[in-house]
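Fold it.
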Amino acid sequence: MMTSKDYNDFCGALAQTTHVVQWGGADVWKVGGKVFAIGGWSKEAHPYITFKCSELGFEMLKEQPGLRPAPYLASRGFKWIQMYDEPGLSDEDLKSYIVGSYDLIVAGLTKKKRKELGLDMPDKA
């Protein structure tokens, strides 16, 4: 199971990310000022890790044991999933979804912002 240190080290290794602690002590990771992952560790055994996903990913994950549409975000129509209990996702799968969330956020930044951050993406033909 991913620890707070594992989560923060992983998110911090992604290009041009920033970390803040907000919303009651959650580790919030951003790229270009936009949130891509939220991690919470409390006295409970299982962390709460929230990430953005594609529409298909959201539909696939929302009913899986240990996963749910992210409180607050999903109720507003956003495609965010929260892992909150067992069995959830393996660390490998969770990392893959965090990278996917990061990629979705980077893709949503303006071309100017991506260039500023050195995160230029090839234009889609």
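The helical segments are 4-12, 55-61, 91-108, 111-117.
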